[in-house]
């Protein structure tokens, strides 16, 4: 049989079994809605002339059993295909998706197929299906497919696929990092020598453009320690547009995400979000390097790492000794907000704060009156997750006071 | 499949890397030594030298070696002593080190009046000016305080429990000092920070009020000292660090008053090229009643004298006193009020795995006159062995023997330099080395 005939058979409506030489091991057949066809070994990688016949060669060139489930199914060769259901497009899609798994086919060839046989929606569907595969190459090839779709082509930010094309905000999936980071390790990021060395023009370019400012008028007043993906900062930035605020995060990728997010928001809403920024640092070691004595008005510790083991308790971000440093950077009257969903940690933080001579709890009335308190459990991604799972939160809000000696 | 091949290949080269990395880590452990330390009684009634685990004291008043009395018998310290200090009122002496013991001695009868057990190895000690509290710091950044009862020494050795006073977050504390008026305690650490904390009336409840942070060093801070000034009772803080600078600070505000780039000055004086960047300031000592600061620098055979101009609060190099004829790089300095002498010692504990026994060498510089603040007028002379107060007897006691073979000093000086670098300079690991070090992590999920 020649190619055209085979194609006809495939596209046609009859059920036909196609005998022929089975290729030797290791090649085996995989399951497909078009059934397995053993093909004439004279067929080879298609040239341009063969474009119309591409479907058939695909069957020959298919891979071999990378996928484990493919392997078990390949032994079932010669299975009857129900061609009544399959349309040409369906066939093509099917073949393409399985081929993409196996990565044997060159991408431009795939692109050719798609251009000829698939419409845009099918291509997008394949693209979505391919994203589920773990292999990078599959995703790359799929990405190339996706680019063919005209609307995707125009809007896609070619330079930075990690940015969502419609909102200009970064996609979280590209910034995933481990939830836990060791605060004791000496990470290699730059640390300012002293608070006067902090470059405000880097963080707040619109508000404080000069690098060496001599005026001490505007200083950072809110600090979100362990800001994660930046939920609280974003909410606070619009609530307090006149106040400079900063987030501190230890993880590299997550800091990048927050940076991109703030930049994206600054572009999307001009004039807003100019007062928020993020810095990658170990706040347990380097807080005095960033803030002068009594500089901060509010400090936030939302859902910190619980460090359950006793031996790791010293890594907790709220501890009796670290509270000395936080009391140093907070103004008298400044407020420290903590919240967690772990009961033991909540009790720990509350007791540390209560036994520290420089903190006193806020009264119920003050808590009601403070607009920020409501944000504690709702503004951050972690908080929203807890709410979704119906968990309980434990908060402790204290004010910095002068110690009575 | 490709990934698997890559792993196999990396595995082979890994074993070679591993071997060399393990070796270097082993070498580092072998290179650990403890430098010799000296401390002088405020009125120079006695001088103490600590060398390895050996504590040697010489009584200058009656020119005799002191035998220390301790309940434990045998060696007073089982492991290297890392810090010794006299209290400013002259009644107490404290020694502590790697054996996790802090021993407080009475200077009258040289009996150990208190032994405090520490959880970790001790890296710095200080005695409060009124002699009621002893503070010590460990390698994890916690400063502990223990209170001492009456100082008559008639009470039996008490085993007291120390209480945490303050903490630097997980950073080796290199030096602890009380301010001259006793209001503040200053602690310096390896994370380039100096913290000034208000020393409370009841230290056992903890010191929570931080007065200021003195930030400005770009490497670890190795030593602290105070200059007493008539107009400011809290004194001026002097610090030396691994960035080869000596800085002076106002501790009330934490502001940097002046910096002196000691490293570059050393380069000017020593024409023979000193290696790389290791001009770490190892020890500083203020000469009481002059505004002179003696600085001991790694690889400088002698000391550098800095003068602090009080009205303008600036620092400048006064002169460099070199020790000729000997390879003497001081590891520790000490001085006493009103005697005009600067005591220096060099030496190291026994190097592990070497035959050379621990040794130390003591030298003295004299000529510091209290009345004239101007250093150039002072005629400073390195005293010959016979001129040292206490003479040969002192040398015999403190050094272990009168004459020392010179060659070993170079080895000792090098060892001390390496030890300090290893301990205090933050290591930058390459990616492979980091992966190697993560091998012993036990919290990784095992791959199926």
Give a short overview.
Chain B: Belongs to the WD repeat TRM82 family. Chain A is α/β, with parallel strands linked by helices. In chain A, 40% of the residues lie in helices and 11% in strands.
Can you walk through the features of this model?
The complex is a heterodimer of chains A (405) and B (448). By secondary structure, chain A is of the alpha/beta class. Chain A is built from 17 helices and seven strands. In chain A, strands 3-2-1-4-5-7-6 form a seven-stranded mixed beta sheet, with helices on both faces. In chain A, strand 1 (220-225), helix 10 (231-239) and strand 2 (244-249) form a beta-alpha-beta unit. In chain A, helix 4 runs parallel beside helix 6. Chain A starts with a helix and ends in a 5-residue tail after the last strand. With 448 residues, chain B is an alpha+beta fold. Chain B has five helices and 28 strands. The longest helix of chain B is centred in the N-terminal third of the chain and has 29 residues, at 2-30. Chain B is 16% helix and 38% strand. In chain B, the strands form seven sheets. A four-stranded antiparallel beta sheet of chain B has the order 1-2-3-4, with helices on one face. Chain B has a four-stranded antiparallel beta sheet with strand order 5-6-7-8, with no helix packed on it. In chain B, strands 9-10-11-12 form a four-stranded antiparallel beta sheet, with no helix packed on it. The interface between A and B is medium-sized, with 26 and 30 residues. Chain B: WD repeats lie at residues 74-115, 214-259. Chain B: It is found in: Nucleus. Chain B: This is tRNA (guanine-N(7)-)-methyltransferase non-catalytic subunit.
